């Protein structure tokens, strides 16, 4: 399915949210992972102080499947007991991309999700009551896989070529448009096509059906290992300020579940700090493997390199405090979206940001 570029229209509107919220049952979720012995688990059971206090149930809405190291902070917070230490019993509920994650959040299915800053700002500018309560990824965590026979090494190389995206109007789709706009190019000149995210999708690139496709860091590493000397990855870096990943709540969920959201963010902070302190990732990988098993986690080299790149993004290469959203960086992201025509000017982006739910030093 070919897609139009989302460059100059917001992909989220009030009518769409109402329709999406009412149709969640029909759309369905991609799944809820359940705890079963040593199998991958969705629950961090127990309470603080070794279970002396009853744990508070908490549903986290993940726009990604849980079988990726893109959600390594969640996996370690679960397997390493950080959720339990903060009195939470967490259920991970996956949705079909960031648009549905926001829809389910607004509908009250869960109190917290993680999406792109692009997604929050376009929705908030359209009237949705969304709040950024913490930045986990500073810079692009998306890679565009391409063939050495037809390189995509700079924005200009994308013009006139079809790029595969995971979903229409999702974070990858929007970030591609914004990257092209910042380079002075017309996003409408780059057709999009919804594709799968597995390594087999690279066969579409080899056949020339698409010029490249957008995937997570760990998936890009796996694919390059499976297609040596054929597959390479384009990294947009931190040129686009709005291309960051943030934990997102609504004003209502903050009012009703503020303490639980603070506990969740404290557990994630502890997990990321553990990754920072584990230079080789040997201990943290072993902890995650004690409860989870999937391709990129099970391969030592892939897991280590994926986490190395992710750690640089979590810490802004060691220059920023964990999870804290920089107000200047946030305002620059808003200005990018206004300049690209993706949202209208006139709002104060500071109204959509609140660092007070993060643990204090």
3D structure, described in words:
- The structure is a single chain.
- With 361 residues, the chain is α/β, with parallel strands linked by helices.
- It has two domains: 2-10 and 141-235, D-Maltodextrin-Binding Protein, domain 2; 28-139 and 243-357, Periplasmic binding protein-like II (D-Maltodextrin-Binding Protein, domain 2, 3-Layer(aba) Sandwich).
- The protein is 40% helix and 16% strand.
- The chain has 15 helices and twelve strands.
- It has helices spanning 14-22, 24-27, 48-51, 72-79, 82-85, 98-106, 117-125, 171-182, 202-207, 217-226, 251-277, 282-289, 295-298, 300-315, 327-339; strands spanning 2-3, 31-32, 56-62, 88-94, 112-116, 130-137, 142-147, 163-165, 192-194, 212-216, 231-235, 245-250.
- The strands form two sheets. It has a six-stranded mixed beta sheet with strand order 1-9-8-10-7-11.
- Strand 8, helix 8 and strand 9 (192-194) form a beta-alpha-beta unit.
- The longest helix is centred in the last third of the chain and has 27 residues, at 251-277.
- The radius of gyration is 19 Å and the shape is globular.
- The model is unreliable at 1-29 and 34-52 (pLDDT under 50).
Reconstruct the topology from this structure.
Elements: E1 2-3, H1 14-22, H2 24-27, E2 31-32, H3 48-51, E3 56-62, H4 72-79, H5 82-85, E4 88-94, H6 98-106, E5 112-116, H7 117-125, E6 130-137, E7 142-147, E8 163-165, H8 171-182, E9 192-194, H9 202-207, E10 212-216, H10 217-226, E11 231-235, E12 245-250, H11 251-277, H12 282-289, H13 295-298, H14 300-315, H15 327-339
Parallel strand pairs: 3-4, 3-5, 8-9, 8-10
Antiparallel strand pairs: 1-9, 2-4, 5-12, 6-12, 7-10, 7-11
Helix pairs in contact: 1-6, 4-11, 4-12, 7-15, 10-14
């Amino acid at each position: 399915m070919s897609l139009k570029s989302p460059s100059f229209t917001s992909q989220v509107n009030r009518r769409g949210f109402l329709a999406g919220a009412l149709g969640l049952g029909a759309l369905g979720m991609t799944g809820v992972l359940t705890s079963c012995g040593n199998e991958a688990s969705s629950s961090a059971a127990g309470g603080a102080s070794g279970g002396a206090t009853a744990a508070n149930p908490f549903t986290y809405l993940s726009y990604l499947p849980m079988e990726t190291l893109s959600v390594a902070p969640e996996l370690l917070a679960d397997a390493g007991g950080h959720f339990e230490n903060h009195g939470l019993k967490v259920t991970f509920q996956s949705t079909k991309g960031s648009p549905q994650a926001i829809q389910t959040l607004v509908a009250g299915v869960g109190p917290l999700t993680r999406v792109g800053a692009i997604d929050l700002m376009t929705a908030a500018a359209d009237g949705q009551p969304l709040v950024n309560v913490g930045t986990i990824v500073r810079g692009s965590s998306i890679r565009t896989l391409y063939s050495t026979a037809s390189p995509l090494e700079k924005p200009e190389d994308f013009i006139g070529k079809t790029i595969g995206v995971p979903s229409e109007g999702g974070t990858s789709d929007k970030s591609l448009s914004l990257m092209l706009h910042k380079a002075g190019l017309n996003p409408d000149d780059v057709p999009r096509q919804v594709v799968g995210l597995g390594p087999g999708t690279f066969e579409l690139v080899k056949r020339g059906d698409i010029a490249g496709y957008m995937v997570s860091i760990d998936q890009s590493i796996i694919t390059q290992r499976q297609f040596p000397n054929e597959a390479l990855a384009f990294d947009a870096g931190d040129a686009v300020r709005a291309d960051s990943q943030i934990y997102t709540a609504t004003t209502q969920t903050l009012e009703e579940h503020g303490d639980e959201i603070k506990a969740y963010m404290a557990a994630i902070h502890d997990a990321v700090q553990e990754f920072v302190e584990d230079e080789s990732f040997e201990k943290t990988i072993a902890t995650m493997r004690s409860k989870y098993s999937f391709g990129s986690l099970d391969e030592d080299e892939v897991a280590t390199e994926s986490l190395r790149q992710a750690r640089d993004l979590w810490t802004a290469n060691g220059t920023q405090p964990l999870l804290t959203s920089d107000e200047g960086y946030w305002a620059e992201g808003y200005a990018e979206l206004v300049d690209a025509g993706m949202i209208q000017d006139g709002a104060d982006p500071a109204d959509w940001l609140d660092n007070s739910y993060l643990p204090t030093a």
